[in-house]
Each structure stands twice: as C-alpha cells, then as structure tokens.
Amino acid sequence: GMLFCQKVQIWIPYASPQTLHQREVVVRTFSGQNWSDLSTRVKQKRKSKKHVAHCSVLHFSWFLVVSRLVQNECKVPTEGTLLFSSVDPNIKVIFPPGVTEETRNVKLQVLPISAEELEEITADSGCRAGPLLCLSQDSLVDFLRPVRIQLPLPRGVTGLNLDQSRLHLLRGDLEGKTWDDITTQVVLEFTHLYAVFEVTHFSWYWLWYTTKTYIGGIAKKVYERLRMYQVNFIALQRKKDPEQVLLQCVPKHKVDPVLKKLQDRYRGPEPSDMVEMFEGEQFFAAFERGISIDMDRPDCVDGRLSFIFYSHLKNMKEIYVTSPVDRKGQAVKGQVSFYRGAVPDSIPEDASRRRKGPDSLWLATLPIKLPRLKPRWGENAGPPNGFSFPPLNLGNAETGYLTQTNLLSIARRVGADWQNIGLNLGLTYQQIERIGYNNREDLDKQILDMLFSWAQQNSEDPDCVSKLITAMKESGRQDIADEVETIIELGQQKYRESIRRVGLEQESSTADSA
C-alpha cells in the first residue's frame, strides 16, 4: 500500500502482434477491483530485435502487456472540445460549450470493417457497413447538451446516390450483445461523405446500408463472427527427431505460409478441417492411442496441453512425446486430438450454446506416428553395420589417449547438432553435406561418419584432443567437452601411475643386485 517517492520504470518484453495500424500495445495493471491501462511507450531493441513496453508507476501490483484497439482520449472541459480518431480521421466527436459541469475523460476506439469481410459473413454483396465506433466516458451522468458525432458513409455510398431508406444507425451495449436500430430516434444529417447525428450518452455505434429490414439481427451475427476466427490445426514431427512434436492453431489465411516455412524441418499430416474459435478462447491438445507427453509442464492439465487462442500470436508449442509401448518391434500409430476449453466471459451466451451434442467440445484429430526404434550400439559394442574403422589412438601417452571406444561413447551423446560440431572441428561444408547425403535417414551413422572422418584426418596431430574439446565448447556442448576432459585426465593418471610403478620396479631390481 505504500508509494515510492519517485516513479519506478518498468520494462516488459512482449511478442510483437504484427497487427494492422488499428491496434496498439499498452501495459495494464490491477488496482483495487479493476484493471486499468497505463501510459505506455513501446520500443524495439536494435541488437536483439525484441519488443518492450515501458511505463512509470509509483506502486507495485500486477502488470501485463495487452494488444487492444487504438484508443484516442481527451478531457472534456465546460468549454467543450473536439476529438478525432487517429485510425480514421473522418470520425470525429464535437463537444459543444456547456456540455458538462465538471471535466470528464472520454475515450474513442474504431474497428474498420472491410467490404470483403462483410460479404463473406453475410453472403450478401449488397450489404455495406461503416467502421465500428465505441465511445465511453468516466462519468455515469449524461451530457448536458447533445454531442455531435460524424461518421463516414459506408464504402461506395455518397450523398449523390444515397437512399435514406436503406441507411440504418445501430447502437449496441458496451458488450455488443444487442444491436438496436435507432435511425428513427435521432436526427440524421448528411453531407456528400458523412452522416452526422447527436447523442447525450455513449455506446457502440455502427452505420449500415442495406435493403434488409431487420438489420439488428444481422449486425449481431456479424459482430459475433468478427470476434471469431476460422482456424486449422497442424501437428508436425521433426524429421531428425520424430519424438519432438510441433502443435499449432493457425488462422486459415496463414496456413500455407506457415507450412511452407516449416516444411524443411518438419513432416506430418495435412492440416485439420476448418473450425471456428473466439479470440481468447481456451483449447486443449490431448495425445491418445499409446502416445503421451514426455515432460512435466505447468501448461499441462490432466495430461492435456492447454492453449489460449489469440489471432495475432503464433499459438504454437513444441513438446517431446513418448509411448509405453515397446517400439523395438513395431511403430506406434497414435493421434493428437484438440478440444474446446473455456470461452471468454464477454462472449454472448447464445453464441456458446450453439455447440450441441456429446462431441461439442471436440475440434479435430490428427495422426501421430512414432517410428520403430532402430537398435543402437551398446556401451561396449562396436559401430553399427556398415562401419569398420581401424583402431584409433588420438593424442599421446603423456597427455592421454582417445580410443575408438571413447569416440563411440562420445557419439552416443551427439544429436541433431552434429553438423555444427563437424564444422567447428574443421570439416568443410562439402564434407558435411556428403556425410549427410551418404547416411540420409540414419542419424547415428551421420554422427559416426562425421566423428571418425575427423579422427582419421587428425590422428597425427598432437593437439587434436584439445581441438575436440574446444569444438564441443564452441558448439554449446559443454557436457561432451567435460566427458572428453575426464577421459583424458583418467588416461594421464594411469600414465603417471605406470611411470611410478616402473620406477619402483627399477629401484627394487637395483637393491636385489646389491
């Protein structure tokens, strides 16, 4: 409850929403019983390219970064003022003198609606609508004098071709659950480009141009669909490591670009059929038929992976899966199913109730296959079939040797990063490419070929062991570097003991002769 003497600067990183210009990023904080937005500056760091949101506060609480419609606000004094939308400057609100006794804060938000989007939802090319306008204030008292609101006419409509009988002004409550036609309740004035009307309290306003008579129901349907997205689910497995699975929920217009970006590293079934999801809706991914998640995660609830769908984020998670089935003899053909979770509180109840039937929570199912395990070489076994190398002793007796058995042990710890390790060891890019091609579809043989090719090339180099340790560290494999150093230390210790033992034997032989 105590305040700081000076403002504290808070910087919070966030994933860039990559949205259109009508959205903005702000820091939101919890105070008392409500969430409120703070004055926020956003910045992209030059080196890391990370986005951060910055705000200044005098107290501590909960803080989070949100993406919202651009909000224009101003203080309305007794003398009146003018408020424009920065998203659409054609939208303005005029407050006349004497509109209020005490200064009050007003806010304006605009959501443009494209003609293509409207036609897709309504299936009516004759329906047109202007941008959605939301007006709010911090006072519960109506304005003392009417406030004038200017809205642009719907696209394609001008004062020259305007049919006033087809123009409807709708008002919605702050949650958009109902839309009432108030065309006959207000005085509408028209110019060549604009419609102007007056109100004494704020709400949502929407200008429509259509031949339909009951426009409120159509607007409600469109508003609900604007908050819903048509999405597809994808489930892909890494080519080099099939137990690593990528799950993602993608808006339908992004599916092809996303798959094209991932096709070099992943493979999997075709995307799921299209389903509809609300912005902010929860859904789960459950692995079934012999496949389960191979880790403890805070977002894993009762064996199911939890997601929250946001259209401007990736909605992607990568996990490792496993199976209790013995995969030495057969592959495991399982699946991953997606199920609905909690719906955002602000969603109209009748929109949620439309999901009927016992499978109303089920969204989609995609196949997942874990291949049969290939037998790996054992701790004391030689290399796999097809590999026959001459005995190797890297290093020297004084500094310690690395033998063929040691290299096999090291190879077991190398994974899909073998190419990076090979390049750091000094192999050429062409050698790496050839090794990968000659042993395609067999990661174990690729690793062995890389390690033993390097070993044969450097068997006469007295510093080859130290170069191996350095290469592992440069490749981010400190664990392997530590293992090599342990092997070398053990070899050096044995060498010193043998020298000492030989020295003792020589002294004993001299004493016997005496």
From TrEMBL:
InterPro entries linked to this entry: DEATH-like_dom_sf, Death_dom, Peptidase_S68_pidd, ZU5_dom
Residues of the Death domain: 403-488
Domain named ZU5: residues: 70-211
Record: active site: 59, 61, 201, 203
Annotated site residues (Cleavage) in this chain: 60-61, 202-203
Pfam family, one: Death
GO biological process per UniProt: apoptotic process; DNA damage response; signal transduction
Classification via PANTHER family: BA1-643 (PTHR28336), DEATH DOMAIN-CONTAINING PROTEIN 1 (PTHR28336:SF4)
Protein name: PIDD1 protein
Organism: Columbina picui (Picui ground-dove)
